[in-house]
Amino acid sequence: MSSDVLLEEFEVLESIYPSELTKISDTIIQIDVEPEDTEDGVDPLKLTLEVQYPPEYPDVLPNLSLHAIEGEGEIDDSERDSLLKDLQTMGEENVGIAMTFTLVSHLREQLSVLVKTRAELKRKEEMEKERLAIEAEEARTRGTPVTPESFRAWKIKFDREQALARKTREEEKLRALTPKEREENKRIGGRLSGRQLFERNKNLEDDNLMEEDAVSVDVSQYERTTRDDEEEEEDGITFSDSD
């Protein structure tokens, strides 16, 4: 490689990339490269392309490497490998001529593609999150579908809770009784007689002592009906002629 040829290429590159190019040595340069296009909502991306020119350049490819610039975005290994592979393919198509400008231009295009791919991926992730959130809300408002298995499990739990509630009510009833009443209640099988309940509470207003299925009786109605029956019997008395 003629040093004059490489020197001439450096002069051209410095005129095109006055602030982006850094000359490391007579055979190594670095150029900061940004994508041609940007996408809203995507982190900025700016890489440094390092080019090492072998003695046989431009008849052979230069050695290329990519480095992320701190604070200018990150790049993972798979993305870096893909970009370098594209640069190598482009370089092979330009063997024999000065190719650095072509490589940098191609890298800018590929970075634009990468940025768009990242933006599309981000949009899909946001759409997926939104879809999952909607499905979760629908499931919450719709409730859990009932299956034979889930119904049996619910029925077992419900019956257990009801049995516990009945037991608690019975215990509360027993605690309200006197020792004598407890003994009597135990003797007759845990059920109070109507007389015991009446004596316990003549107005039958204590819900803790009344049976769940008990029916309230209006005594005055009973007394009035009895009097009516007696009056009807008196009205119906007949006397014989012999009297």
TrEMBL record:
<feature type="domain" description="RWD">
    <location>
        <begin position="8"/>
        <end position="114"/>
    </location>
</feature>
<dbReference type="Pfam" id="PF05773">
    <property type="entry name" value="RWD"/>
</dbReference>
<feature type="coiled-coil region">
    <location>
        <begin position="104"/>
        <end position="142"/>
    </location>
</feature>
<feature type="compositionally biased region" description="Basic and acidic residues">
    <location>
        <begin position="169"/>
        <end position="187"/>
    </location>
</feature>
<dbReference type="InterPro" id="IPR016135">
    <property type="entry name" value="UBQ-conjugating_enzyme/RWD"/>
</dbReference>
<dbReference type="Pfam" id="PF16543">
    <property type="entry name" value="DFRP_C"/>
</dbReference>
<feature type="region of interest" description="Disordered">
    <location>
        <begin position="169"/>
        <end position="243"/>
    </location>
</feature>
<dbReference type="InterPro" id="IPR006575">
    <property type="entry name" value="RWD_dom"/>
</dbReference>
<keyword id="KW-0175">Coiled coil</keyword>
<feature type="compositionally biased region" description="Acidic residues">
    <location>
        <begin position="206"/>
        <end position="215"/>
    </location>
</feature>
<feature type="compositionally biased region" description="Acidic residues">
    <location>
        <begin position="228"/>
        <end position="243"/>
    </location>
</feature>
<dbReference type="InterPro" id="IPR032378">
    <property type="entry name" value="ZC3H15/TMA46_C"/>
</dbReference>
<dbReference type="InterPro" id="IPR040213">
    <property type="entry name" value="GIR2-like"/>
</dbReference>
<protein>
    <submittedName>
        <fullName>RWD-domain-containing protein</fullName>
    </submittedName>
</protein>
